[in-house]
Each structure stands twice: as structure tokens, then as C-alpha cells.
Amino acid sequence: xxxxxxxxxxxxxxxxxxxxxxxxxxxxxxxxxxxxxxxxxxxxxxxxxxxxxxxxxxxxxxxxxxxxxxxxxxxxxxxxxxxxxxxxxxxxxxxxxxxxxxxxxx
Length: 106
Fold this sequence. Notes:
- It contains no helices and eight strands.
- The chain is an all-beta fold.
- The strands form two sheets. Strands 1-3-6-5 form a four-stranded antiparallel β-sheet, with no helix packed on it. A four-stranded mixed β-sheet has the order 2-8-7-4, with no helix packed on it.
């Protein structure tokens, strides 16, 4: 199999308890254990106030970092979860979900 094979160190970033308006910085590390470049074609978030701070293609055997920032200003009070979906070139895992969660206090 010549495909890319992404292995994320974790798929969840827990930001704990924060005051509304806090900017959450989340980082996910990914190693490509496959034989082709790991390419992310598209990144979607279910929370509009999410900024994609860093991502790039990852060559075979290399590790890359995906960074996101989330503005909690408009989040409701209580537990919140932001779901980020990566659309990738990996046949056995074309959609990768990353989660950024925690509790927001007003």
C-alpha cells in the first residue's frame, strides 16, 4: 500500500474551564507512517469562530502540527465541544475528526 497513513498523538484537546472570551489555542501532532505525502484538502469546523493557524502536507516518515484557535466569546455557558473535520487523501481514513472541548463560564 503506497498511501499516506496519518497517526495523530491525540484527537482531543481539553481546554478545561475558561471564562467566555478566552481564545483557546489547540495543537495536534500527526506522524505520517505511510509511503505518500499526507494531504489535507479541506478543513471544516462546526464553530464559526475557529481559526486555522497552521497546517501543511506531511511527507512520509515526518511529523506535522495542526494548530487552531477558538474564540469562546459567543459560546454558551457550560460544556462545549468544537468538532474539526479534515478531508484528506488517505483512502482508509478520508475524514479525520479532531475535538476541542471544555467548559465556558460567563
